[in-house]
Amino acid sequence: MLSLTFLSILANIAGSTFAASTFSPARPPALPLAVKSPYLNTWLYAGSDDSGNGGYLAGKWPQHWGSGVTGWTGMIRVDGDTYVWMGDPQVGATTVNQTSYTYTSTKSIFEMDVAGKVQMNITFTSPVYPNDMKRQSLTFSYLNVDVESTDGSSHDVQLYTDISAEWVSGENTVNAQWDYATSGGLSYHKVWRQTQLLFSENMVNNQGLMADWGYWYYATNTSDSLSYLQDSDATRNAFKNDGKLGNKQNKTFRPINDDWPVFGYAVDLGSVKGTAPSQLFTLGYTQEKAVQYNTTDGYLELDSLWTSYFDDEVSALSFFHNDYATATSMSNDLDSKISSDSKAAAGQNYLTVTSLSLRQAFAAITPAIRSSGKTYFFLKEISSNGNTNTVDVIFPMHPILLYLNPQILKMLLDPLYENQESHAYPNSYAEHDLGAHFPNATGHPAGDDEMMPVEECGNMLIMTLAYSQSTGDNSYLSDHYAKMKQWVEYLVEDSLIPADQLSTDDFAGHIANQTNLALKGIIGIGAMAEIANITDNSADSSNYSSISKDYISKWQDLGIAKSASPPHTTLQYGNDSTHGLLYNIYGDKLLKLNLVPQSVYDMQSKFYPTVENKYGVPLDTRSTQTKGDWEMFTAATCDSSTRDMFIKDLATWINETPTGRPLTDLYDTNTGGWPTTQFTARPVMGGTYALLALNSK
Ligand SMILES: *[C@@H]1O[C@H](CO)[C@@H](O)[C@H](O)[C@H]1NC(C)=O
Ligand SMILES: *[C@@H]1O[C@H](CO)[C@@H](O)[C@H](O)[C@H]1NC(C)=O
Ligand SMILES: *[C@@H]1O[C@H](CO)[C@@H](O)[C@H](O)[C@H]1NC(C)=O
Ligand SMILES: *[C@@H]1O[C@H](CO)[C@@H](O)[C@H](O)[C@H]1NC(C)=O
Ligand SMILES: *[C@@H]1O[C@H](CO)[C@@H](O)[C@H](O)[C@H]1NC(C)=O
Ligand SMILES: *[C@@H]1O[C@H](CO)[C@@H](O)[C@H](O)[C@H]1NC(C)=O
Ligand SMILES: *[C@@H]1O[C@H](CO)[C@@H](O)[C@H](O)[C@H]1NC(C)=O
Ligand SMILES: *[C@@H]1O[C@H](CO)[C@@H](O)[C@H](O)[C@H]1NC(C)=O
Ligand SMILES: *[C@@H]1O[C@H](CO)[C@@H](O)[C@H](O)[C@H]1NC(C)=O
Ligand SMILES: *[C@@H]1O[C@H](CO)[C@@H](O)[C@H](O)[C@H]1NC(C)=O
Q1: 83 Cβ closer than 6 Å to some ligand 1 atom
Q2: Would you say 211 and 41 are in contact if contact means Cβ atoms under 8 Å apart?
């Protein structure tokens, strides 16, 4: 690691006005700030391709995954001088000096030096509670600020933070409304889109970004040293000038971009010698209704899960805010578990990857509840198109769920089964998704979803068996046996010689005879043989077992370039000059089917290093792009040296990529750049837990 002194010299050489910060374990393309749901999903874009400043919290506005600014400001006054520590408020104040940034699985921690007088530790925690549905149901995030005097003297310190109305809609021309109140020791700003549009998102290029319904809160403890103001830029200037705010609400409700409404807090820390008390802020939103769902029982508007635990929004907010000690201890436990398991599995590089992926993956899934009490999860296919519960997005994500709580996988699959078992879907193969746009899970009664038949039939069979193996819940297999048998018949027809079709990598286009796709289908048949065995359907079991064995032997003739040096599987049958990541072999290893001979694993392990580029191995011969999720699936199937090569390349890419977007899964293996406008902040990065899922079963 470079020493701080050396980095400071570098910063001076580069002509920077700020001293250099360290970044540990890496400087990610975007630093997660409040990342808890598709809408509470705000980052500090760091990479230069997206106008990042290298990862400095002060001087740049935080942004939603869709790139819209979510105004969030921090300032501090020390002995009458004002400094900015977050955002870019135009008040003519200098910025603090960031000295370090560290991320864990649940936290982003900044250390700041303010004029050599005080030190600030700024901790953003977006807790993930895989096994505590009450806590997981809340879409809030913490900002905690610690201040201490560092030069032995006392300093007069006031702290400031605000949010703008930009959080309440992606369209800045719509009206915002707001209020301020206190309740049981809590003070809060409440801000919302004046005209609520239930289940609607503002759409940009057909990508749904932020929610048009729900209520945003910015809360902190009530105290004598707290003051607040709801105004415009005047809020920030008032703090700069006076170090306190006027405790007033300006209720001229107006568009978000009309004299930008700003909702601020100031806390007078008084004379600080040593350490001042921590200041905690909670930011987030509530929606009573989460998702529209269409099932056999008809059309339902599902409630957000938090409504089953709390009487009202402010009770939910108060619970979350006052839960910080527990949240911190549970977050520390989860951070430690992921840290020790990742390091034991493949070292620090692996932890660099897994710890950056946790918040992102979980932020894409939303729990909702029926009046019967049944709970589901709904996934938003963030950024690539917004589909609900896309099967080939759940599939790359599912290792993180097997590792942390396989019941969540079931709760994502349940609505897909309910929809297809209710005859609401006409095709014989498995449905691609539950609806064209989250939060609408209204299905595809006309069967006109994106067609990926072999892909999705294979995915459903593999994930259903993986869930059952992880939990011992065999009745789930019996319950859905008939539907799975329908799908496996499709695979028997179409997996060995797959017709011209899309695989999950649809950006690369249609082709026939895809070697990796065929393997998914054949493993799906092998999974069904095991499912039939477990459910006492012995005739089916021996039938599917012999079909899968026959197919896997033919597949080796069709899909391997035997005379290539070294030999490898192809992208497309018969074309020995092609190759690709054989990531679908992962299903064989995960489910312990032993269908694919070890010789194929060994062959691929030897081959990948021969086609490695600077930042990884290309997805296939059609381009130099790759997918980080599929690289980690592949790594989990290789010998330790090739596995570590994949992991090192992805960790290096995270630290060096010029992209500034929330962790993109698609990137270029030579330049490290990002070849598209999509594939950012997607839950598929849960696939980086592929190795941990193997170990956890
Ligand atoms: C930041 O560091 C630079 C270089 O050491 C120094 O000149 C400047 O005064 C510092 N600013 C603050 C706010 O501490
Ligand atoms: C910030 O964190 C560092 C490292 O954990 C610690 O040494 C320091 O005392 C903390 N400072 C404050 C202001 O809490
Ligand atoms: C906020 O106030 C509650 C009591 O209402 C107290 O339990 C809690 O410790 C306070 N939190 C902070 C961060 O001061
Ligand atoms: C969901 O469906 C409703 C109609 O029921 C529509 O108004 C809304 O725009 C849809 N939401 C999205 C994000 O497409
Ligand atoms: C309230 O805000 C509006 C819009 O910024 C501004 O025109 C008006 O002067 C403010 N009222 C007061 C009393 O400050
Ligand atoms: C619900 O599904 C039925 C068909 O199963 C369809 O006729 C109806 O339009 C759907 N309702 C909504 C709101 O999508
Ligand atoms: C085996 O499965 C195939 C495909 O579903 C079916 O056509 C065939 O009849 C089955 N054979 C037996 C013996 O069950
Ligand atoms: C797919 O592969 C099979 C077996 O090699 C071959 O017969 C068929 O022509 C191929 N189809 C296409 C479209 O290339
Ligand atoms: C399941 O597989 C085991 C091991 O191969 C075998 O002994 C058993 O008979 C099978 N059961 C059924 C119902 O096929
Ligand atoms: C084989 O693959 C290469 C590389 O993708 C391609 O250029 C070529 O056209 C393919 N050949 C055939 C016969 O499809």
Answers
A1: yes
A2: no
pLDDT at 51 over 80: yes
Minimal-distance CA residue to ligand 7 atom 10: 543
The C-alpha atoms of residue 680 and residue 9 are separated, in whole angstroms, by: 34
Residue 47 has pLDDT above 50, yes or no: yes
d(CA 64, CA 73) in angstroms, rounded, equals 15
Q: Look-up: residue for tokens 């006027």?
A: 246
Which atom belonging to ligand 3 lies closest to the Cα atom of 144?
A: 13
Could you tell me if residue 461 is inside a domain?
A: yes
pLDDT at 637 over 60: yes
Return the residue matching tokens 């911190």: 328
Q: Which residues line ligand 2 (CB under 6 A)?
A: 111, 119, 121, 146-148
Residue 258's alpha-carbon distances to 230, 233, 372, 412, in angstroms, are 14, 11, 45, 41
Looking at residue 349, its pLDDT comes to: 98
Tell me how far apart the alpha carbons of residues 442 and 419 are, in angstroms, rounded to a whole number.
9
pLDDT digits (tens, 9 = 90+) for 266-317: 999 999 999 999 999 999 999 999 999 988 778 999 999 999 999 999 999 9
Query: Which tokens is 668 given?
Result: 């270029």
Asked whether the predicted pLDDT for residue 24 surpasses 90, the reply is: yes
Q: Is the CB of 259 under 6 A from ligand 5?
A: yes
Q: Is the pLDDT of residue 676 over 90?
A: no
33 vs 144: CA distance, rounded Å: 12
**Vertex 234, ends 229 and 240: CA angle to 5°?**
90
The residues that bridge with 176 in the sheet, in sequence order, are 193
Mention every residue, 6+ apart, whose C-beta is less than 8 A from residue 484. Answer: 460, 461, 464, 477, 528, 531
Distance 261 CA to ligand 5 centre (A): 10
Distance (Å, whole) CA 632 – CA 622: 20
Mean pLDDT calculated for residue range 74-87:
98
Domain count, the chain: 1
- Asked whether residue 7 carries a pLDDT value surpassing 90, the answer given is no
193 within a domain of the structure (yes/no): no
Separation of CA 120 and ligand 2 centre (Å):
8
Shortest-distance atom of ligand 6 to CA 440 = 14
In this prediction, residues 637-649 reach a mean pLDDT of 98
With a cut of 70, say whether residue 205 has pLDDT above it. Answer: no
Pocket test for ligand 6, best of 199, 295, 299, 302 (most atoms within 8 A of CB): 299
Q: Residue 18 has what pLDDT? A: 54
Residue 85 belongs to some domain of the structure: no
Express as a percent the part of the chain with pLDDT over 90. 93
Neighbours of 373 (CB within 10 A): 7
In a domain, 76, yes or no: no
Q: Is 257 in the pocket of ligand 5 (CB under 6 A)?
A: no
Ligand 9 close to Cβ of residue 536 (< 6 A): yes
DSSP state string for 228-248: EEEESTHHHHHHHHHSS---E
Q: Which domain holds residue 503?
A: 451-606
